[in-house]
Amino acid sequence: MKNSKIKNIIFDLGDVILNIDVPVASKSFAELSGREQAEILELFSKNALFRQFETGELDEAGFRNYVRKILDFSDLSDEAIDTAWNSLLLDLPPERVELLQNLAKNYRLFLLSNTSSIHITQVNKILEASTGIEKLEDLFETVFLSYEMGLMKPDPRIYQKVLEQAGLKAEETLFLDDNLANIEAASKLGIDTIHVQKPVTILEYLKDYAV
């Protein structure tokens, strides 16, 4: 049901706008290194690899070198690492972009994503191939990315920073995310939320907001 107070909509990226399959990345690294997928997941989790990269503690070179170190595979090329890392990124349905363009006529639109620079480069390639639009910044007033902000959802500070920087009132703002913890954290700050759960997409969730 439409909330008539809403003036601003903040979107997550993965599995909200762009389809993703997170386990594919660990599978790709397993195939690259000749290890079991479960071992890859344990190694990456134990070393907080993704968190470090997605909060900007590691830059691209640092991320790739850390992958080589963790996997004990010094000959792994930059391209091989990037390809494995990006393998979780799937497609971006054009109809979701059309919805965003429609919503932009009446709402201020923002993106808030836990992500990395390598992923964003690839997402922009997928976006252009799918729609002809060159970059995410062409769809949103501001694109808020965890690796640039030094914070990750569901840390309450990341939502507060978005509200403050964009000059938004929580009660006038709607946030869509596929992760329940992220939704709950935003709700506690007074932000209206929609928990996006496949197979339902933003086309259905936001049909009452579209023109």
UniProtKB/TrEMBL annotation:
Does this UniProt record's set of keywords contain Phosphoprotein? Answer: no
Q: Answer yes or no on keyword Transmembrane.
A: no
Which InterPro entries does the record associate with it? HAD-like_sf, HAD-SF_hydro_IA, HAD_sf, PGP-like_dom2
A GO molecular function annotation here is: hydrolase activity
Q: Which UniProt keywords apply?
A: Hydrolase
Q: Which CDD domains match?
A: HAD_sEH-N_like (cd02603)
What this protein is called in its record is: Putative hydrolase of the HAD superfamily
Query: Can you name the source organism?
Result: Dyadobacter psychrophilus
